[in-house]
Design goal:
By secondary structure, the protein is an alpha+beta fold. It has 3 domains: 58 residues, Orthogonal Bundle (Arc Repressor Mutant, subunit A), CATH 1.10.10.200; 97 residues, Alpha-Beta Plaits (2-Layer Sandwich), CATH 3.30.70.980; 61 residues, YebC, transcriptional regulation domain (Alpha-Beta Plaits, 2-Layer Sandwich). It contains 10 helices and 12 strands. The strands form 4 sheets. It has a 4-stranded antiparallel beta sheet with strand order 3-1-2-11. A 4-stranded antiparallel beta sheet has the order 6-7-5-8, with helices on one face. A two-stranded antiparallel ribbon has the order 4-9. Helix 3 runs antiparallel to helix 4. The relative contact order is 0.18. The mean pLDDT is 86.
Length: 253
């Protein structure tokens, strides 16, 4: 798993997603609109929309809010015109980053992303310089108290590829197209599923060994994620659990 996925696990445990729920809903609604505009409003005929709907429901969006977003995308409500852009760059220490953006103003968003990189010691890269290192995977996190043998059997039966201990939480890896189906199967079997996502991950990890270095990387990730047009940020850092906890908690080395 990429370091960013480990960072996402920490944020999930700390409840950071709940604190930013309003901003999360705006981003989810935008994803629904774009998916519906590109492939239509029928989730059975539009796999991208189906995934966006499942992600929105996981984020606890109401059915009414989901329906309104889809209708905006199909032209049945007030709508903007969003463009999908993937920015590529490097955080301090040579950590590769991908920034998934949906924007109605390419120039504004580009300037804002460029400014974050400049202010936090990173740099933008040319298209293709970073993206080749990443592949999309399904990641289902399950309560770490779950017995491994039972979870492994159920996960494999549901079509998952792998199961590993991710710092006290079980990480189930799947093909991204079935991540939410695996989540539903595990939930239906009585397992406590903590989260599900389909991030871009990298096997080419960059080690970040000190708390100071970790804070620099996490600051630029946080600053970019704070942009309303940014849907997701992916990075290939590898930070040891104790260093990551110290960096997130503000502890000294």
């Amino acid at each position: 798993m990429s370091g960013h996925s480990k960072w996402a696990t920490i944020k999930h445990k700390k409840g950071a997603v709940d604190k930013a729920r309003g901003k999360l809903f705006n981003k989810l609604a935008r994803q629904l609109e774009v998916a519906a505009r590109a492939g239509g409003g029928d989730i059975d005929a539009n796999p991208t929309l189906r995934t966006a709907v499942q992600k929105a429901k996981t984020g606890q969006m109401t059915n009414d809010a989901i329906d309104r977003a889809i209708k905006r995308g199909t032209g049945e409500g007030d709508t903007g015109t969003y463009e999908s852009i993937m920015y590529e760059g490097y955080a301090p220490g040579g950590v590769a980053m991908l920034i998934d953006v949906l924007t109605d103003n390419r120039n504004r968003t580009g300037a804002e992303i460029r400014g974050v990189f400049k202010n936090f010691g990173g740099s933008l890269a040319e298209p293709g310089a970073v993206s080749w290192q990443f592949v999309r995977r399904g990641i289902v996190l399950v309560d770490g108290a779950t017995p491994e043998d039972a979870l492994l059997e159920a996960a494999l039966e549901a079509g998952a590829d792998d199961l590993v201990d991710d710092g006290g939480t079980w990480r189930v890896t799947t093909d991204p197209s079935i991540a939410y189906d695996v989540r539903d199967a595990l939930d239906g079997a009585g397992f406590t599923v903590e989260s599900v996502d389909t991030p871009l991950v990298s096997d080419n990890l960059v080690p970040v060994s000190s708390v100071e270095e970790a804070r620099k990387v996490l600051r630029i990730v946080d600053a970019i994620e704070d942009n309303d047009d940014v849907q997701d940020v992916f990075a290939n850092f590898d930070i040891a659990d104790d260093v990551l906890e110290a960096a997130v908690g503000g502890d000294d080395e």
